Structures are given as structure tokens and as C-alpha cells.
Here is the input.
Amino acid sequence: MTLPHFQQLTPECILDAVDQSGFVSTGRLLALNSYENRVYQVDIEDTAPVIAKFYRRGRWSDTAILEEHQLLNELVAQEIPAVAALKCNGQSLNIFHHFRFALFPKHAGRAPELDSFGVLERIGRFIGRIHAVGILSSFKQRPAINIDTFGFSAREYLITHQFIPPDLLSSYQSSTNLLLEGIQRSFERAGSITQLRLHGDCHLGNVLWTEEGPHFVDFDDSRMGPAIQDLWMLLSGSRGEMTQQLADLLAGYNDFMEFNPRELHLIEALRSLRLLHYSAWLAQRWEDPAFKIAFPWFNTQHYWQNRILELREQCALMDEAPLCI
Here is the structure.
């Protein structure tokens, strides 16, 4: 019987892939927290460790991965603190046996303390710089974040593949119908919005803080979309708290990019799309043994009951007035 893709990725295979790339590993490696791909810190003789990222089969084409690498190279060229893939044997995307992988320099850091003075403004400044580069070109292979890719297709997958319990199916369908209608209204209120190359998954886990400021890591979810996508995930708490956090972010962001306030209509719509997409993302990878171990609560009756309640709450939030700046 053929093993699932990542179960064939043995420690020996990982080390051999790194050695083939021109490094001499010590034989020590550490698995890092990643479910979409497999990521390892590999110790290298007489120099700093490297981060080896093995890509999930079937998610991105080679061209789409190289689009991410190209964006990272553009950011580094502008001295923006992103972490670009190393070129090994003249290329950033490598193949060992049937595994596609890339190597990255290790960049240590800690979670940013958002309550500290000036931290959000500095993060906002760098997001503005990222977007100032991201708007200069477009992805050709990577899809955009929108109601079709994150909304309708996600719901269709969950229903078609029978992840929703039969006794909750009607409730789920009616709730998602209302949700998608609300998302559509939010995009209509926002009007014409500029699409640009984004980080795409800019939450605190992907921002590492050092004495020099933030480093942005893991552009694996980079896509086309509205600028607010890279800002709203850094907001939390009450409406008043989020308003202040957003003001701090934009104080830095607007130094390099002009933020369109009409995009504020999209915050809860994008949050709603993320909720739909996240459930479908788990479902699409449910045959990966690592997912069943890491997410044992997924696909239970309780999980879907909570999701339906959450989606109904989002319907109400999208009808509220947007945050003010």
C-alpha cells in the first residue's frame, strides 16, 4: 500500500534533500509548527541552521510557488524584512525524489507586544511598504481572495462531500445563504477596490518581533486581494479597542500607501469568508493523519453546531456600521 504523501518524508529524506542543495547537515533537525506544508529547522555544519519547507502536493503549481518567491525577492530588494527563499543550484524551488521544497534562512523572533507604544504603528508601516511593492505587479497563477474562492467554493465542497451532519444540513444551508448575501452586500457597499499582492495570512503568528522591529514570515497564502485583508487579522477586542488598533496601524501604513476607507466595509465580510474557508481547508485535508491528530474537534456535531451559531453572528455584524477612522 502506498503511504500518504508526507508520511514518505522521512528524516533521512529531509537531510538528503538539504545536503543535495549544497549544505552539509549535522544530522539534527527539528519539526516546526506547520500543517499545510512540512517545515523543519535543519542544523548545518559551521554555519546557521536553515529552514526546509516541503510543499503539500497538489496545492500550488510550481509557477504559483515561484510567484511567492518572486514577491519575497522584490520585498528583500527594497530592504523590507521578509524572508526570501535561498537559491540552491541556481533556483529557489527544488525537487528531491518527488518532493518539492525550498530552503530559507532562519530568522528568530518573538510575538510582538501590541500593547507596547508604537508597535502597531511600526507593523502598519511595514505592511504599507509590502503593499507598495505588491501593487506593482499581479499574480497570474494565484487566485484572489473573494466571495467565489473563499465563499461559494468552500460551502460547495463541504456540502458535496457530506461533511455537514444530515440533521444540521438545512440549518447550515440557510445560515450560509444569509451569510453569502451579507458578504455580497458588504462588497457592494465598498464599491470598486484595488486588488494587490498580499501577505494573505497576516496574523500575529506570522509576525516575528526583534530589536530591529518586525519580520514577516510564511507568505504561503499570498494572494490577490484588498489591502484590508492584511490589517484586519491584527485587530481584536471590543469595537473601541479595534478602532484604536486600526488607527495605530494606519498611522504607519499611510506613510507608504494611501488606505481606502471604503475597505472598512469588508472587515466582517472577510472574516466571514475566512470562517467558511477554514472549515473547507480542514475538510480538504482530513485524510492527512496529522490533521486528525491536531484537530480532533473538527467534523463533530458540536463543531458544526458552533459554526452555524458563529456564522449567524457574522450575519448580524456585517449589518452594523463599519469601524471609523
Notes: The longest strand covers residues 25-31.
